[in-house]
Automatic annotation (TrEMBL):
<dbReference type="InterPro" id="IPR019775">
    <property type="entry name" value="WD40_repeat_CS"/>
</dbReference>
<dbReference type="Pfam" id="PF00400">
    <property type="entry name" value="WD40"/>
</dbReference>
<comment type="pathway">
    <text>Protein modification; peptidyl-diphthamide biosynthesis.</text>
</comment>
<dbReference type="InterPro" id="IPR001680">
    <property type="entry name" value="WD40_rpt"/>
</dbReference>
<dbReference type="InterPro" id="IPR015943">
    <property type="entry name" value="WD40/YVTN_repeat-like_dom_sf"/>
</dbReference>
<keyword id="KW-0378">Hydrolase</keyword>
<protein>
    <recommendedName>
        <fullName>methylated diphthine methylhydrolase</fullName>
        <ecNumber>3.1.1.97</ecNumber>
    </recommendedName>
</protein>
<feature type="repeat" description="WD">
    <location>
        <begin position="208"/>
        <end position="244"/>
    </location>
</feature>
<dbReference type="InterPro" id="IPR036322">
    <property type="entry name" value="WD40_repeat_dom_sf"/>
</dbReference>
<keyword id="KW-0853">WD repeat</keyword>
<dbReference type="InterPro" id="IPR052415">
    <property type="entry name" value="Diphthine_MTase"/>
</dbReference>
<dbReference type="GO" id="GO:0032259">
    <property type="term" value="P:methylation"/>
</dbReference>
<keyword id="KW-0677">Repeat</keyword>
<dbReference type="GO" id="GO:0008168">
    <property type="term" value="F:methyltransferase activity"/>
</dbReference>
<keyword id="KW-0808">Transferase</keyword>
<comment type="similarity">
    <text>Belongs to the DPH7 family.</text>
</comment>
<keyword id="KW-0489">Methyltransferase</keyword>
Amino acid sequence: MDAAHCYLEGNADAVEFCPHEPYVNLLAASTYTLQEGDSPSRSGSVYLFDVGDGEDVGLNLLQRIDTAGVFDIRWSRDNDGGGNVALAQADADGCLRVYKIDDTEVKGYSLREVAGEKISSSMCLCLDWNQSSTSIVVGLSDGSASVVSFTDSNLETVQEWKGHDFELWTASFDLNNANLVYTGSDDCKFSCWDIRDSPTENRVFQNSKVHTMGVCCISPSPSDPYSIFTGSYDETLRVWDTRSVTRPVNETSLSLGGGVWRIKHHPSLSGVVLAACMHNGFAVAKVSDGKGEVLESYNKHDSLAYGADWYRGKGQKQSVVATCSFYDRLLRLWMPENCI
C-alpha cells in the first residue's frame, strides 16, 4: 500500500532510516547526478525527512545539503542514548563525510557536518560502520578498500589495501567480529579480510566461482552470526553459511529478475529482506530452512531501483519501507502486505 512519494532534484540512489531512538522518524536520502560535457562534474545532495510515527506516515522535508555526487550513506550502529548517532557519506570526490543530528533548531532536526576527509583520489562508492561505530570501511572505484577510524569527530585512514581488480561496490564489517571485513566487486569476487595486520596477507577467503557477474551487495544477517546475504548483477540473491570461515558455502540462491543492488534485513522478522533489484523494481523475500521465496514485488518506480530500507520504529501495525529510483528521481514510502 502506497503512503507517500516525492521527487528529488537529482538521481536518487540511497535511502536510510535512522535506527536510533528518538530519531527513528528521520529518513535520509541521497542523490548522484553526472553533468556531462567538456568539464564533467558529479553533483549530489543529502536530504533529511521526517516521516511521522509509522502509522500516519509522510515525507516532510527538513533539510537538503548540496555536496559532491553521493554513492552511499549509512547511519551509525551504536546507540548509547543518542549522543553518537551519525550519518556517513561516501562521495565521488573521494571524500568521506560524517554528519550528526542537531536538535537545537526551533524548527526541528537537521544534520551538521562534524568531519570530512578526502581519503582517496578514486571515488568512494560504498561504506559501512563497525558495531561500535568507531570505524568505517569504504570501497573505492580502483578496487581498494580503506578502514577509517572515527574518534572525537576526527577521521583517519588506518588501513588501505587493493583487494579487487575493478570497482568495489560493497564492503561490510562482520557483525560479530570487528576484525573481519567482507568486500565485493565488479571482478565477481566475494572476499573476506582480517584487518588486524596487513589485509592482503590475511585474506580469510575469496570466492570467484559462484557469482557470474559483479558483486554489488553484502549484508550479514543480524539474527544469524553465520549467515551472510549477497546480491549481484547476475540477478541472484544468495545466502552463505560461514561456519567454515575459510570456505563459505552458498546454501540458498533466489532469482529476483534484476541486479540485486541492495539488501536490507527486516528489523524484527528473521530471514525477511527487502531487495532493490535495479531493472526489476523491489522485492520482499523470505529465506528459511535453505529455501527462498519472493513474498511481494513492488514495481511503482519507473527507473533503476537502488535505495531501500525498513522503518525501525516500534508499535506500528504494518511494516513501512522507503525506496528510491535513479533516473526518475522518485522517493516512495509504502507498506508491504505480505511480510509474514
